[in-house]
Structures are given as structure tokens and as C-alpha cells.
Amino acid sequence: MLYYLYATPVASVIFVLTIGLSLYVFSNPQWYTKLMLHPYTVHRDKSKWYMIFTSGLIHKDWMHLIFNMMTFYYFGFGLESMFVQFSGAMGHVLFAGLYLVSLILSDIPTLIRQKNNPSYYSLGASGAICAVLFSFIMFQPKAMLGLFMVIPIPAYLFAFLFLGYCIWASKKAYDNVNHDAHLFGALAGIGLTILLYPWSISHLISQFF
């Protein structure tokens, strides 16, 4: 972990801060309503825009936290390292930008759809983490991932299955996990990666042909 703190400082800060704040709200649940994304409030009180960021630092329960942080650990640190390889020290800034901008973009559809729904709340870092995952896939589409942490599957196939699940889950969900953010976070990650590294498209194609 000390190596990661030195080589990938942005991913390390995100990782530690997300775990720390999530654990805090687990023990102090009164903070959930203060930090969760509430589109109804944000639409009517622009000073509450901070909820977009704070909601991405807290999680519903242990399973939600563990799944997101395992995904971020496996792909976030690797992606920041690749950005540094491509862009030198500026890679750290670009990685931070991709994570934060994706976090915002992944929540915009929810803010629009739920702006008149006072009972809707959401939380979790899933949107930004999906952006990280799909950005990683742009560079290493044939990397082997573990479906359910067990079944080996290439990253590009995982991407299609994941997007299909997100579309289905967004129509069925009745919890506070923002499933729409998974889909739009993934799309944001792909779009921002192409914007930062246009050659990633030809690189992706070359991996198959």
C-alpha cells in the first residue's frame, strides 16, 4: 500500500477517503440525509450541489462499499499508473479530472429525472468507478476479469454484460443505489478517455484486428 501511496496518490486519496467517510456514516446514520444526493433539494437550492460529491463518498452498507472499493482497487490504481505512463506527472491530474467529472456527469440524468420527487435519495461511488473501469477497458479490453470474483471473463465481454445489467436494474430498483449512474458513468468514462487520448479508439480496435 505504501507503493500505491507514492505512485498513485490520487487513487490512494479517493480510496482512503471513501472508505473512511463510509465507515463514519455507518456509525453515524444521521449524516446520510445530509450527504446523500437529493435531486429535489439540489434543484431548489443550488447551495446543495455539494451533494453530488459527498454522495459519491458514502455507501449504503458493507456489501455496497466492499464491491465498489474492490473494483476501484483493481482498476483505479492501474488506470492512474497508465495515465502517468502516457502523460507524465500530468497523468495524476487527468485521472483526478476523469473521476470527478464522471461523478458529476453520471448524476446529471438522475438530477433531471428525479428533480420533482422529494422521496428520492441516492448514494455511492458507482458512477465514477464505472468510468474508471470502462476507461481501463479502452486500454486493455482483453484483460481477464473475475465475474463474481470467480469466473474468468475478458473485459470487453464484461462491459457488455455490465451495461445490460445496469439498464435492467435501473428499471427494477427500489433501493437508494443509483443504478442509472452505473450506465452514464461508464459512458462518461469512455467519452472522457477518447477526449484525453484520441488514439485510444484505434488502440481498442487494434486489440481485436
TrEMBL record:
GO terms for biological process: proteolysis. SUPFAM superfamilies: Rhomboid-like (SSF144091). It is found in: Membrane. The keyword Repeat does not apply. It is a multi-pass membrane protein. Residues 47-197 form the Peptidase S54 rhomboid domain. GO terms for molecular function: peptidase activity. Gene3D superfamilies: Rhomboid-like (1.20.1540.10). Belongs to the peptidase S54 family. This is Rhomboid family intramembrane serine protease.
